[in-house]
Design brief:
- With 496 residues, the chain is α/β, with parallel strands linked by helices.
- It has three domains: 62 residues, Arc Repressor Mutant, subunit A (Orthogonal Bundle), CATH 1.10.10; 306 residues, Rossmann fold, CATH 3.40.50.150; 97 residues, Nucleic acid-binding proteins (OB fold (Dihydrolipoamide Acetyltransferase, E2P)), CATH 2.40.50.140.
- The chain is built from 13 helices and 17 strands.
- Strands 4, 5, 6, 7, 8, 9, 10, 11 and 12 form a nine-stranded mixed beta sheet that branches. Strands 13-14-15-17-16 form a five-stranded mixed barrel.
- A hairpin with a 2-residue loop joins strand 2 and strand 3.
- Helix 5 crosses helix 6, helix 7 crosses helix 8 and helix 10 crosses helix 11.
- The chain is globular and about 85 Å long.
């Protein structure tokens, strides 16, 4: 009996019955097959068929999977908000990573020699990261490069992706059954983060496909990810497909992907220009479902953040829509040349491995707990996060016209595009309305803080704010503009 015939029979039975036992399938196929053989033949097809399968004694109960999008309940919101207050890697996952280190090195995970080699790998990776141009060569082809990543970068990226995924759930962008493609999976950061978040949701499930070019990463992925998925039971993990995404054949990708993730990967394809990266992403978007999303995440440094904004505008021009964080409130394009914008979240709790690696003369080199990242979420269906557009006769100045208003008090509407970049004396926030060529910052001195303007201190990244009665100042040193918020200024939330 071929897989095709079994799939056809499953489709037929599931149309007739909302729930049935897998053993019943033997009534619809010609050859003699055990329940286990039927399961093994069809196991990777249940998700795409919209079916859930639950082991039950020597059989399996098959049910039609729920359709639609996640609507978080109070319990899910409460448990996730509690997680993000002290976010980190679970003890069980820490143990799996430590066991992989022991398997890979043949020594205890906290052996002095092992820790020293991990330190060297971290220092080497950080040195390569800050190089520019063709001399920048970030690679994970060697075993200790992976161990260095797991010790230093992984914990932050693991929590970081959960923040984004949870925001998507709050926005109603996650389906009750999600098909995710992780492009450039590394040792499984996106898969592990998905498993972790979904374990805090009541009913939703996901399947994660991934692409990875390095054998060492695939080895680490297969050693760690399936173990974690097995104990959490909410996410179906498919073995990574070895592929170089710069030469990808889109025909090898799964169909109807709900979320395609490029996490800290496009910036590492140094031989591609921004237009070439845009063409690559656009080509791969052919495999998205009609209401699917593309998520691109890059580091928060100025070079990578600015390059991401240029790429996102290129993809917008290619026909994809920007869902967030950008909002085009004046219905105009923007100039991303100087757009350095990033999200910031609460620090994570360091892992036992990270703390052990930091037990040396220069511990600061090995502790990595702050979450800062640049991202763009793109759609095929033109859906956008922010619906607000400035009314035609509204009395607000465009940020592109600030030169006319220097040393004057004006009203503006703009998106909040950074966390607080200032200090105790002066809070500083990057703002954008999609029109300005030069960078614009809202500045709130601590002595000017009032109940009428304090909302900017806690507003969410990407929120649209009206800022009234602000003084325009030109910053000659940085060729930018500062909008000075005074005690008489009023800040209101237009759209969160």
């Amino acid at each position: 009996m071929s897989e095709k015939e079994i799939i056809s029979a499953l489709k037929y039975v599931s149309r007739m019955k909302a729930e049935f036992m897998l053993s019943e399938m033997r009534n619809y196929i010609k050859s003699e097959m055990s329940v286990q053989d039927i399961y093994k033949t069809a196991r990777f097809s249940f998700f795409d068929l919209g079916l859930d399968i639950i082991p039950e004694d020597d059989d399996f109960r098959v049910l039609r999977a729920p359709k639609g999008f996640i609507n978080l309940n109070d319990r899910e919101e409460k448990i996730n908000e509690a997680f993000f207050q002290t976010a980190g890697v679970s003890k069980k996952l820490e143990k799996f990573i430590e066991q992989y280190i022991e398997k890979k090195t043949g020594k205890h995970w906290d052996d002095k020699q092992v820790l020293e080699r991990i330190r060297k790998a971290i220092v080497s990776q950080k040195a390569d990261y800050w190089k520019e141009g063709k001399s920048r060569n970030i690679s994970y082809e060697k075993g200790y490069s992976i161990l260095g990543y797991l010790a230093y970068q992984f914990p932050v990226y693991f929590v970081q992706f959960q923040h984004i995924l949870y925001d998507m759930a709050q926005d109603g962008l996650l389906k009750k059954r999600m098909k995710i493609l992780d492009v450039g999976s590394g040792p499984g950061t996106i898969s592990l983060a998905t498993i972790d978040l979904y374990s805090r949701l009541d009913g939703p499930k996901a399947v994660v496909h991934s692409l990875e070019m390095y054998d060492e990463n695939i080895e680490a992925y297969n050693a760690i990810v399936p173990q974690y998925a097995q104990i959490k039971e909410k996410v179906d993990i498919r073995e990574p497909l070895k592929a170089d995404i710069s030469k990808i054949d889109v025909d090898i990708l799964p169909e109807k992907i709900d979320l395609m993730v490029f996490s800290n990967v496009l910036n590492e394809i140094k031989e591609f220009s921004i237009p070439e990266k845009a063409r690559l992403v656009k080509k791969m978007s052919e495999k998205l479902s009609h209401d699917g999303s593309i998520l691109i995440i890059e580091p928060a440094d100025k070079v990578n953040s600015t390059e991401l904004r240029k790429l996102s505008i290129g993809l917008k021009g290619a026909g994809l829509s920007i869902y967030s964080p950008c909002s085009f409130i004046w219905d105009s394009g923007c100039n991303p040349v100087e757009c350095w914008s990033f999200e910031q979240q609460k620090d994570i709790v360091p892992t036992r491995l990270m703390k052990k690696v930091a037990e040396c003369d220069k511990p600061y080199r090995y502790i990595n707990t702050d979450i800062k990242y640049s991202y763009v979420l793109l759609r095929k269906d033109k859906l956008t996060c922010k619906k607000y557009r400035v009314p035609k006769k509204a009395k607000y100045a465009k940020l592109s016209k600030l030169e006319r208003h220097t040393e004057k008090r004006i009203n503006v509407i703009a998106s909040l595009m950074s966390g607080n970049l200032g200090d105790e004396k002066n809070s500083l926030f990057k703002i954008c309305d999609g029109t300005s060529v030069k960078a614009v910052y809202a500045v709130l001195p601590s002595h000017n803080l009032t109940k009428e303007n304090r909302i900017i201190m806690n507003a969410k990244y990407g929120s649209i704010l009206s800022i009234e009665n602000v003084l325009v100042r030109y910053n000659d040193a940085n060729d930018s503009y500062n909008l000075l918020i005074g005690r008489g200024s009023v800040v209101n939330l237009v759209e969160s």
